[in-house]
Structure formats: structure tokens, C-alpha cells
Amino acid sequence: xxxxxxxxxxxxxxxxxxxxxxxxxxxxxxxxxxxxxxxxxxxxxxxxxxxxxxxxxxxxxxxxxxxxxxxxxxxxxxxxxxxxxxxxxxxxxxxxxxxxxxxxxxxxxxxxxxxxxxxxxxxxxxxxxxxxxxxxxxxxxxxxxxxxxxxxxxxxxxxxxxxxxxxxxxxxxxxxxxxxxxxxxxxxxxxxxxxxxxxxxxxxxxxxxxxxxxxxxxxxxxxxxxxxxxxxxxxxxxxxxxxxxxxxxxxxxxxxxxxxxxxxxxxxxxxxxxxxxxxxxxxxxxxxxxxxxxxxxxxxxxxxxxxxxxxxxxxxxxxxxxxxxxxxxxxxxxxxxxxxxxxxxxxxxxxxxxxxxxxxxxxxxxxxxxxxxxxxxxx
Length: 379
Description:
Layout: E1 13-27, E2 40-42, E3 49-52, E4 63-71, H1 83-99, E5 111-112, E6 122-123, E7 125-131, H2 133-136, E8 139-140, E9 146-151, E10 168-173, H3 177-180, E11 190-197, E12 216-222, E13 227-230, H4 232-235, H5 268-274, H6 277-285, E14 288-308, E15 322-323, E16 326-327, E17 343-347, E18 353-358, E19 371-378
Antiparallel strand pairs: 1-14, 2-3, 3-4, 4-7, 5-6, 7-13, 8-14, 9-10, 9-14, 10-11, 11-12, 12-13, 14-19, 15-16, 17-18
């Protein structure tokens, strides 16, 4: 009699987990004006700015990232009670409670510079790059993230308004995060962002870690959330004296003008409390030279080993298997039975068909042979 169903045992089923990675390069020309800012979407609420890879009114446009600014109530600058400053404080607190969480008193923690939440310095002002799920997938691969900013080479020889060349670069990246990432975040794993010049050497300056000669810690990258947090004062020029900004080490004049034209007074400290989120976003994205990272897709699989013994499935229930009550594939009565399986069905305990696996070609099966079909379900 033809056998149709066979019960799996615990030895016939196993599970696997595979991580797939894809390289994501974002050239600076996309956020800085390839499409005359038609790929940049601003909103009436003024809370963030969205960057697309194509003019956003086009059906072909893909969301790349959102850019916004936040400041803590502990920010050292003068935080006025303007609508824009309230928005920045709200954004900082909203993202901090999601990414950092609360302390023992129920207060929202600030973003910590070294991941030691109980002690150490904090980032009280922040630029937030929220990458779309289309790009980051399940998470950003640890140790693969970097963003480069353009720096002006020096003061102009002519009057104010002379053209500058943005030919020097600084690089922010999660060096060594594959083994040094942190896990004390409610949003998952995160790494520390360091800053160097574009060829990988530490940028010297007062923001450098004292006495170590290593790159300064200027931000955090949350891998599962797909969010990068940068301290703008530590990255860009904070004033004409450049007390903290690393970009200013490479440039004697590094205001945050949208173009290469010198824009007196547009230092990042003034922008944080004296400008809109949209204006700050315009300044920052026009400094972007390149963004790159590898995303991660987690592929979970269940593998079923369909073991067919020599005395099983040698007959078929297909109506075409018989002709005039005789098996078509047998020439003589004494010949062994033969079947040609073409598919495998996976059923629930109540025999409800759940999945079907097709063979590339019919497989001959008779009592003289055994084989195993490997069926994999990915999800």
C-alpha cells in the first residue's frame, strides 16, 4: 500500500541562524544637493529633516535617513524658552529615554560618552542620524560604520565672502566595536564613535583624550535602532577660538555655512540655540562627504530532513500511476515497484498542508535505494 505521510522525529528537525551583510555607501553629493535639495523634505512641525536618494515627490525615491538636533536641559549654552529650543529639548529627551533609558530616580539619562552610565561625561547636545530600515535592515554591522565631514583648509586671503575649498576631511567611525560594543541600552547594542582625520590618524587638539594620543569619543551608534548620535560641538568648530571642535583642528576657519563661502558667526554653538532644526540640518548635511556601513539581515531557518527508507514511498497515489489497474512503470508483475517523487509537502498534525518543496527533477525511488531530502524554510 502506498504510504503518504511520515512523522518527523526530533532528530529530523534543526534550526540555523545566518547573518547576511550588504555594503551601504551614501555619497555626500546625495544629502548635500545633487538634486538642488528636491530630495530633502522639510515639515511644518520643524522637528526633523528627511533625506531621500531622489526627489521625494517621485515614486522612485527611497528614504535614506532623518536628521535632527537635540539639546539637554544640562547643555552649557544659553537655552532660551523659544519654540525651537523646546523642540530640541523634547527631541533629546524622547530619543534618550528610548536609547539610554531612565536612572534609579525615574529621570531620563543623558547620552554617556563612554557607555559607563553611572559615571563619566555626557553628550548634552546631539545630532541624530536615524537611518531608514530599508538601509539598516535588522541592524548595522558592528565596526562598519563611518561618516566623513568636509573641512575648510584655512582662512581666505581676500575679504570675507571669498570662496573656500572643502578639501580636508575628518572621519567619525566605530573603531573596534565588533568586540567592544556595549549592551546596557534598552534599545539593544551600541558602540562608541571616535574621530580621526580622513586617513585614519588621530586628530590632535584640546578635545583629544588627555595624554592618550587616541581618537576622541564624539558620539554613539545604536546598531539595532539604526541611529547615530554625534556631539556637534566636539565634531565641528564651537567658536572662533575652537576650544573643542575637532574639525577646527584641520581648518583655521570652520563656520557652518551651507556652501564653501565664509559665513561669519555661524559656529555650531550659536546654531544649537539660535537657529531652527531645519537650518542646522542644512548646515550639517552640506558638510557630509561620505557615509558608509554594512547592514545585517538575520535569516532564521528551520531545516527538515525527510528521510526515505528503502521500503517507503515506492508507490504513488497519483491517478496517472495506474492504467487499467496496472502500474505504468512496471513491465512485469515480478518487477519491484517504482515511484518518481517530484515534491515534498509539510503538514500540520491535523494534516493541513503548510509548505511545499519542489525537486528540480523527478527522483527515482525503489526498494533498492534510500535517500534524504533536505527542506529548508527561511523566515
